[in-house]
């Protein structure tokens, strides 16, 4: 059985609380707590029976297994610095986060870390596309860079796939469309504009100016509607089919737009159901509101004790709450690598000797020039042994292939 669920993070007193709600009944499914810290932003991702949470300004990504109801933290991924922005693919195999002006791509199953160092100022937002193949990064420098996941994994991070420099202030949020034939990307900024780009051509389609600061953005699953949250509590709905054929316009120049009225403070986060019929919004006014996107009426209000930091909609299976449920994979610790180790090679071989050799997990991390140190000397000898074995193995396989011809 599959249940439509809302996950939310709110803060009050000395703690922050993460809860899971049944969208249809409004009943609470699960609850998790964490230490309170005065963070304006909490990031949230739910998939494969796991919940990931990251707080702006903290160097950790918290992991919970959903079948451990009301229990302590299951695991923690330690980042190499204080996280400023965070996102994960739908299957949680790849996690992207920023520290200052550097962006990191973490491979959950291996722990390998790839680095993007392109922006001039702090990267304020990172987002994956719906298919997980593209990453967009927005910074305080107003730059919006778009990267191909495959290129990052291969170490090609000198130049982005696309670069947009139309914003003049910090980028607050980014969203990808779900379309394949005509992919769009939309960004909002402190300059109070929402800019729509065509990813195929790299052209700016339109820039829309608003009267208030824009805080979060969302596109419906059918790519027909654009939802934009503001710091005054209003949510605007814009139909892509009604966008005028001009490069720049004010909101009032649009042919038609709709408003969702009810929140009284900053809109912090939005999410939408798969059928695009229900919009979920969280606000600093301590409420989560569920809206009907056709009538624009609020059909349900969930009252929290403190400011709502994030909301996330997903479908969950009842099987994940069983005690013997195990996630598809575990999150490996992040491997901190030097620049010369950025290019990663994955080796699969049926040779038993090689498997035994690789499973010994020799430690070469602390080798330095001091050969008088017994530990370093032992590590160097191990390294020589491994190199010799790999060389002989490669030479043997190479000679075998030549002999076949």
Give an account of the 3D structure:
It is a single chain. The protein is mostly beta strands. It has three helices and 29 strands. The chain has helices at residues 149-153, 352-359, 374-404, and strands spanning 2-12, 15-22, 28-35, 42-47, 50-55, 60-65, 75-78, 85-88, 94-99, 102-107, 113-116, 123-128, 134-139, 144-148, 162-164, 171-176, 184-189, 193-198, 204-209, 214-219, 225-230, 235-239, 248-250, 257-260, 267-272, 278-283, 287-292, 298-303, 307-317. The protein has a five-stranded mixed beta sheet, with no helix packed on it. Strands 3-2-1-29 form a four-stranded antiparallel beta sheet, with no helix packed on it. It has a four-stranded antiparallel beta sheet with strand order 4-5-6-7, with no helix packed on it. Strand 20 and strand 21 form a beta hairpin. The longest helix is centred in the last third of the chain and has 31 residues, at 374-404. The termini are far apart.
């Amino acid at each position: 059985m599959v249940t439509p669920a809302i996950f939310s993070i709110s803060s009050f007193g000395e703690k922050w609380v993460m809860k899971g709600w049944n969208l249809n009944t409004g009943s609470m499914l699960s609850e998790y707590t964490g230490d309170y810290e005065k963070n304006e932003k909490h990031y949230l991702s739910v998939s494969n029976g796991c919940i990931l949470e990251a707080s702006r300004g903290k160097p950790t990504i918290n992991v919970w297994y959903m079948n451990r109801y009301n229990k302590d933290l299951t695991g923690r991924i330690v980042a190499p610095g204080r996280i400023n922005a965070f996102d994960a693919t739908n299957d949680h195999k790849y996690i992207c986060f920023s520290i200052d002006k550097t962006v990191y791509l973490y491979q959950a199953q291996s722990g390998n870390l790839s680095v993007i160092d392109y922006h001039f100022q702090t990267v304020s937002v990172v987002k994956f596309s719906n298919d997980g193949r593209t990453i967009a990064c927005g910074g305080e420098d107003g730059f919006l860079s778009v990267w191909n996941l495959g290129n990052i994994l291969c170490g090609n991070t000198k130049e982005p796939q696309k670069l947009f420099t139309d914003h003049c202030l910090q980028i607050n949020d980014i969203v990808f469309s779900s379309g394949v034939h005509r992919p769009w990307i939309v960004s909002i900024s402190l300059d109070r504009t929402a800019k729509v780009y065509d990813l195929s051509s790299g052209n700016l389609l339109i820039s829309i100016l608003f009267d208030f600061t824009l805080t979060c953005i969302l596109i419906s699953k059918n790519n027909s509607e654009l939802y934009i949250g503001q710091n005054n509590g209003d949510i605007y709905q814009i139909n892509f089919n009604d966008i005028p054929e001009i490069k720049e316009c004010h909101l009032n120049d649009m042919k038609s737009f709709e408003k969702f009225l009810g929140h009284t403070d900053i809109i912090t986060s939005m999410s939408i159901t798969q059928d695009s019929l229900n919009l979920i919004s969280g606000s600093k006014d301590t409420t989560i509101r569920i809206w009907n996107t056709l009538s624009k009426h609020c059909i349900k209000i969930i009252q929290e004790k403190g400011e709502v930091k994030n909301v996330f909609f997903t479908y969950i299976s009842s099987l994940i709450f069983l005690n013997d449920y195990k996630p598809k994979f575990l999150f490996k610790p992040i491997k901190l690598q030097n620049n010369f180790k950025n290019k990663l090679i994955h080796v699969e071989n049926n040779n038993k000797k090689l498997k035994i050799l690789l499973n010994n997990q020799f430690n070469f991390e602390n080798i330095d020039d001091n050969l008088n140190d017994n530990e370093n000397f032992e590590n160097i000898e191990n390294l020589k042994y491994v190199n010799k074995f790999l060389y002989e193995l490669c030479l043997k396989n190479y000679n075998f292939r030549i002999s076949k011809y």
